[in-house]
Automatic annotation (TrEMBL):
Residues 12-25 have a biased composition (Pro residues). CDD domains: LRR_RI (cd00116). Residues 1-47, 468-540 are annotated as: Disordered. GO terms for molecular function: protein phosphatase inhibitor activity. InterPro entries: Leu-rich_rpt, LRR_dom_sf, PP1-Reg/Actin-Interact_Protein. PROSITE patterns: LRR (PS51450). Keywords: Leucine-rich repeat, Protein phosphatase inhibitor, Repeat. It holds the Pfam family LRR_6. Belongs to the PPP1R37 family. This is Protein phosphatase 1 regulatory subunit 37. It comes from Aquila chrysaetos chrysaetos.
Amino acid sequence: MEVPGQGSGPLTVPPEPGNETPPPVEVSLSGAAQGNEDGRLRPGAKRVTFPSDEDIVSGAVEPKDPWRHAQNVTVDEIMTAYKQACQKLNCKQIPKLLKQIQEFKDLAPRIDCLDLKGEKLDYKACEALEEIFKRVQFKIVNLEQTSLDEDGASALFDMIEYYESATHLNISFNKHIGTRGWQAAAHMMRKTNCLQYLDARNTPLLDHSAPFVARALRISSSLIILHLENTSLSGRPLMLLATALKMNMNLRELYLADNKLNGLQDSAQLGNLLKFNSCIQILDLRNNHILDSGLAYICEGLKEQRKGLVTLVLWNNQLTHTGMAYLGMTLPHTQSLETLNLGHNPIGNEGIRNLKNGLIGNRSVLRLGLASTKLTCEGAVAVAEFIAESPRLLRLDLRENEIKTGGLMALSLALKVNHSLLRLDLDREPKKESVKSFIETQKALLAEIQNGCKRNFILAKEKEEKEQKLQQSASMPEITVTEPLEEDPAEDGRDGSATSAPEEGEEAGETLTKPRDQLPAISPASAPSQGNERRISVSSPGRGHKIFVVTRVESLPERAANAVCPQEDTTAVAKSVESQNLAPATKPELLAPWANGTVPESAGDPAVCESLARNTPLPNGLKMDFVRALPEASSDGDGKMGSCAAEHELSCSKNEQELEELLLEASQDAGQEPL
């Protein structure tokens, strides 16, 4: 094979200086220079020499930092750079843009919005915008109806991808971005990690552009919301889109309204999408041609949705009572669907009857749209039956239906037993009736319905506030005790008897009946206490509010206390403990100082006795610091003066074993009482 224009003469490429070794690789460029039969090259053969591996790469250049212009930038710098770019490119400056630049304040985080809606952006105008994008970032970039062509759209999308200029991008109403524009948009969707929202309404996505977008959606890592309303998706574009979205785990909201989607192939693709994708939460299919046949496909996909789809909009899809039969059989299987909008479909009374049992069997629907669905009083009665059975429905839309007195009466009665419905939308003006008095009846029923919704709203708000308080009290427990009241000793003597404790407890609700490990938070009681009594208020989430009165705290039992303390009836003491439902848990280690049967030498000294009583842990688990906060003992009703002996009533048992048995019996009795 001869080199054109060179004939069959030899062509030699000499090696570069200093690269004589290793020996050059000889490549023959002529068929005549293949070599002789012995394999040797003919003299004068054409040769090509390659440098060694170390010399192939002569150098490296670091990539440009996209933010090298964004450090310590000012509004004046941005303004100047944009004006110079417009002058260099010979394009007009955009006054709307200049005004927005002047209003920029904090340039460090993302600026809220760059709004270019309605401005005509040709290729040069788009190139000038790079001076802004390279210096600041935005949350929203609005390019709606900016007359973008392929060149301008490609340039803009490349800039937004390179500089990560926006988290929300609106390119709607641009009908001429073409294949190259969509290709650049798909590259931006695939490469940009910050883009979460893309609005492409009324921007046609045709057959030759759809594969790029589908490929980007299959591996997209950031896009959460996608608007493709009126983008001519029916047919192959929707098939590619739905197939790609089966593998997408990030998209949450998909809007496909006004695409003339049919009830056969398009609906089958949507049904398959719902079978395999459980991440999409909102699917808007309004103003298409789904029909009853298409709804059957979608219902097949809905049955597979154990979690995921929360909102389904089927507004104006020519659905009838036949489609409602499919939907009625599907609703008991859906577990995540909360909003179902069936408005502007000729469902009729029969359709509502087909839907009613499915709605009653469903446990997730909170909002139901039935506006303009050809309902009369008969259909309203079926809806009322669902309302009466539903414990969770929040909103119902019945506007633009012929619901008259009979239907309103059924709805009003249903609201008397329903406590969840917060909003019921009905036509404000009453419907025409043959009997004029019914007009006033309709007005009265409408008022009753609205009052019922208001009542439910107030109840829901009170319930929410109560739950918040309970959560706060459960997460932030507090234990405090009121300070001792300083009162006249004579009054203490009159009111200091222990019999008042259960009475005060009963007044507050009930006495203490829970084991110690179930005690809730304790805080001071607001009610005044009598005499030396100390009240402790107990707030327990979901278990009411209780007030207990502490009149005295007994100290540790003492075997040798008989020598210094007057004896009293042990049974009476145990009954006193049991009457107050106190279940002290005496620990063996607390009895150690007295276990050998000996009495300390200082036991007969009243001062030392009092000191021991105050510094020894109590058998009911209370610390001595808590005892010091209680009032001092005073004379009782019999005129006996309080002393060290009076404070040691629990120590009057004959031995520790008898006392432990009494305390155990008291605690068991307390634990058996109902909560």
